[in-house]
From TrEMBL:
It holds the Pfam family BBE. Gene3D superfamilies: 3.30.465.10, 3.40.462.20. GO terms for molecular function: flavin adenine dinucleotide binding; oxidoreductase activity. This is Berberine/berberine-like domain-containing protein. It comes from the Eukaryota. It comes from Phanerochaete carnosa (strain HHB-10118-sp) (White-rot fungus).
């Protein structure tokens, strides 16, 4: 897909707030030993943070995280950006008991 298509959709039109040109890559670390698991995790986190910093330098703002690449420690604010309040209202309407709460979970906004 052309990056031009990405920016044709407004940031508030979908849950995906990341609607500016950016670098994107999938990083996976693997190990066959317990000691290697921590090293692989540290490596993937540091590489992801490097890409995040480069995107911030190029765009002039922190672009946060792409939901499909999150490891589970990311904050919902950094994933959904300005869309989070709207998504929290939808969560309260369609999942008020917070059944779907794995990964980067959105807390329902009960008004």
């Amino acid at each position: 897909m052309s990056p031009k298509k990405l920016v044709e959709v407004g940031a508030a039109d979908t849950a995906l707030a990341l609607r500016v040109p950016h670098y994107w890559m999938a990083v996976q670390g693997r190990s066959t030993t317990d000691a290697g698991v921590a090293a692989a995790s540290d490596w993937t986190k540091s590489l992801s943070e490097f890409i995040r910093q480069k995107n911030a330098e190029l765009s002039g703002k922190d672009l946060g995280w792409f939901i499909n690449m999150c490891q589970g420690e990311e904050k919902p604010e950094d994933v959904f950006g300005d869309n989070l309040p709207r998504l929290r209202k939808l969560k309260a309407k369609y999942d008020p008991q917070n059944v779907w709460s794995r990964g980067v979970a959105i807390a329902p906004l009960h008004e």
